[in-house]
Amino acid sequence: MNYLSNMSYPLIHGIIAFVLSVLATAYLVPKIIRIVRFKKLMDDPNERSSHSEATPSLGGMAFFIVLILSLYFNHQYDTYGVAISMYPALTILFFLGLKDDLVVLAPVTKLIGQTIASLFILMNPKFGISSFHGFLGIDQINEWVGIAFGLFIMLAIINAFNLIDGIDGLASSIGIVAFSGFAVVFFFAERYFFGLTSLVMVGILTGFLFFNLSTRNKIFMGDTGSMLIGFMVGVMSMRFLALDLPSLSKLPFNAVDVPIVLASFIIIPMFDSVRVFTIRVMEGRNPFSADRNHLHHVLIDAYKISHRKASFYIASVNIACVLIFSLLLKLTNTYIASSIILVFSALAVFFLYKISPNVVKRKVISRTIKKRHQRRLKQQKKQKQQGNPLSPIRRVYSLRGHLQK
């Protein structure tokens, strides 16, 4: 009873924070859309785009503003001084993403910025991973090994969310699933600052989703938004892995199961990134080269479904993974659950690898035919406007008129 009473006030605060985040985002996004349209800072479609017309793409600006304000208002729960590390990290990523949306940045430049932002978080002692609590037989971890591992995890998550932001609603939907899971975990562990921040992120993404899925006032989050989402998921992941034993004892699962629970929250973006990189390497291509082999592209191209349906299906799979992983941990032990998850992941990779080349091949053929048809129409229109004397049809009609005279 005392536990519930201690949680009640932060929970009420969390509900208020969620509602205000939704309203603040819904207020800011239309204003950003108007500014972007007025300044003509639109995202023009290219051969890999899933949209066909110029669309505003700076929705991530609203994420940054609302998140920074929320950190100030939730500071009373920040007992470890985490916010002071998040301010410079978020600012670096915001300007990095903003510049990438306006002027494309080199991958190395983005990676350096992401590394610096991540180190601001990882140098805080409360984010240090000192133990895996027996997962894979690993207990204590060296401090610098923990920082290196944390940096790898954060960079992987940031770029995984950046890569999965390819269709309307997908990154937001996956983000909502992940942050909802983190909110539950941190409220149980009585780490209320992280629980409240997770609820704020759920509110931001919910408010943005209405516009991202709109037909009249559509806007993309851009790299500014996807990197901020990935970064915040990385922050929550590292804090989850770094929870001490007293906090872990309050959770409804064992300490050794933490990596499995975390994997269930972020399985879709991580699975998609590993799968795409593996396919590119197997085909002898640069793992960072662009293509349409991502999970969402395969789903849309193979089954001809809308962005909304594809995002809904993929987010539903993510929710199902959270529930199935939790059930496996209840019915079996960590090693059996991990083995089952790996087997099914391998089967999923194999299935998607088999259908991807066929989808891409059909897409390339379709696109080639379409371009050829457009080129032919353009030539005919040009000949009609200029009255090209070399046109065979015009030459025949010209000769017939001359003979009649």
Number of separate helices: 15
Class of secondary structure makeup: mainly alpha
The whole-number mean of residue pLDDT values reads: 83
Instruction: Give the number of DSSP strands.
Output: 2
Helix content: over 70%
Main sheet specs: 2 strands, antiparallel
Q: SSE string, helix = H, strand = E?
A: HEEHHHHHHHHHHHHHH
Shape: globular
Determine the strand fraction and express it as a percent band.
Answer: under 5%
Rg to the nearest angstrom? Answer: 25 Å
Unreliable stretches covering 5 or more consecutive residues? 360-369, 389-405
**End-to-end span in angstroms?**
107 Å
Could you give the order of strands across the largest sheet? 1-2
Provide a brief overview of the structure.
The protein is mainly α and about 400 residues long. Helices cover about 75% and strands about 0% of the residues.
Structure description:
There is one protein chain. The protein is mainly alpha-helical and 405 residues long. Helices cover 74% and strands 1% of the residues. The protein has a domain of 255 residues. The protein has a two-stranded antiparallel sheet. It is globular and about 80 Å long.
